[in-house]
Design brief:
78% helix, 18 helices, 0% strand, globular, mainly alpha, 429 residues, single chain
Length: 429
């Protein structure tokens, strides 16, 4: 209800920014999740190993990290909206071309191109909506935007069920990639009337890309990046091979896999929303630590405890809910750790650098699966990642003050955040 209050009272530009960021994130999720859904088919058709499947996921994450930081820098220099449009066009075209891949090598190249767009979209979109949302509602608004990932994943899952039920496997995976271009082009057309936030236009400055590594910001940059590593390492170690685990280890059909993933995705949607609410209520840092701890509890229950089909189906709900909580709280925290002039580069670096190292997690899961088993490999690397996320969050300052604004002591060097105007009045940043 409080989110609806913000939406009703927000200026037109803020409402447009919300739907632009939500739509872009949802469409990115749809395009990104296609790979995990079609991976079992590609492994069979092209006779690839789990290690090669993991490599296809890992190189995408590396390129996502590079693209995210570059797009963050560009959004600080040339504007949030311009970079947002460019990155969406980039990943939409790359996804479409992936449908023409003739084998492992060509798909590897196209997955790299996809990654550059994926990382850039979040960096620009998160900076855009965080500045329009202001401090009072930032957690809830960013959590709602992040829930677009679950919506996009659900769209991809519906397409998966439809395509694989109606078409031969040799064509169904291509059709899914080809379909990834259409909605993204629609969103680009809708964004022509969107402008950059007033607070960005007032605080716009040409600063060094290395500003976030100076002494007053170095600590939050380092631990922010480690938090990004823990969040992404856990999430990608879990979700990259989740369809493969359901079909291969649990022996489910396409429709059976769809049912399990539907429960996971629905729970994730609510996890993003609740995480955003809690970030505003109990603080950004406490929220992330709580969800990381709950992830550590739910992982072994789902993957290592022998459950019947109904038990595993029910266990999908808490796992999906808790795994969404950490990324659901990252946007508001990262936005408040950096001043306006370097917010895009700071958010882009912290959120995406973790993907460089996290890129090794799917590859390691795939490589160790023959020895440990796929379930144990997922549990091991996802568990290590979530533990790191909790420790890194504890090493960062709490950016939310008791009055609901942003603490002026949140950032080393005394950058003042907070203020009564949620749409960019002086001091609101």
């Amino acid at each position: 209800m409080i989110l609806l209050t913000w939406y009703r009272t927000a200026p037109t530009g803020a409402r447009r920014a919300f739907w632009a960021a939500f739509g872009g994130w949802a469409l990115e999720a749809a395009d990104a999740q296609i790979f995990g859904l079609v991976l079992p088919t590609l492994l069979a058709i092209w006779q690839l190993s789990d290690g090669q499947g993991g490599l296809l996921a890992s190189v995408t994450l590396i390129c996502t990290a590079v693209g995210g930081w570059c797009a963050g820098l560009a959004s600080d220099r040339w504007g949030r909206v311009a970079v947002l449009r460019a990155t969406i066009a980039w990943y939409a075209i790359a996804t479409f071309l992936a449908g023409f891949a003739g084998g492992f090598d060509s798909l590897l190249v196209l997955r790299c191109l996809q990654g550059f767009g994926f990382g850039g979209e979040w960096a620009a979109g998160a900076a855009l909506i965080s500045e329009y949302a202001g401090t009072r509602y930032r957690g809830r608004v960013l959590g709602a935007v992040q829930s677009g990932w679950a919506v996009g994943w659900a769209v991809a899952l519906a397409g998966y069920a439809l395509a694989f039920s109606a078409l031969p496997a040799a064509w169904s995976w291509r059709v899914m990639f080809w379909a990834g271009v259409a909605p993204a082009l629609l969103v680009i057309a809708l964004r022509r009337t969107l402008g950059d936030p007033p607070v960005y236009l007032r605080g716009r400055a040409k600063v060094s890309p290395l500003r976030i590594f100076r002494p007053d910001l170095l600590r939050v940059t380092v631990f922010g990046a480690l938090l990004g590593l823990g969040s992404h390492g856990g999430y990608y170690a879990l979700t990259t091979f989740l369809p493969t685990y359901l079909r291969g280890t649990r022996g489910l059909t396409v429709l059976g896999t769809t049912a399990y993933l539907a429960v996971f995705i629905t729970a994730s949607f609510f996890g993003y929303l609740v995480s955003g609410l809690l970030a505003d209520r109990i603080g950004r840092r406490r929220n992330i630590v709580a969800f990381a701890a709950l992830c550590l509890l739910s992982l072994p229950l789902y993957l290592l405890v022998p459950l019947n089909d109904l038990g595993a189906l029910l266990a999908s709900a808490p796992l999906g809910f808790f795994s969404a909580g950490i990324p659901g709280g990252l946007g508001s925290l990262f936005a408040e750790l950096f001043p306006t002039a370097v917010r895009g580069s700071g958010q882009g670096f912290c959120y995406n650098l973790g993907r460089v190292i996290a890129a090794a997690f799917p590859a390691l899961v795939g490589a160790l699966a023959p020895r440990l088993g796929l379930a144990a490999g997922i549990a091991l690397f996802a568990g290590l990642a979530y533990a790191l996320a909790a420790v890194a969050a504890l090493c960062l300052p709490e950016t939310r003050a008791d009055d609901g604004r942003v603490s002026g002591a949140a950032v080393a060097g005394g950058h003042a955040y907070g203020g009564p105007d949620p749409y960019g009045a002086p001091g609101s940043h």
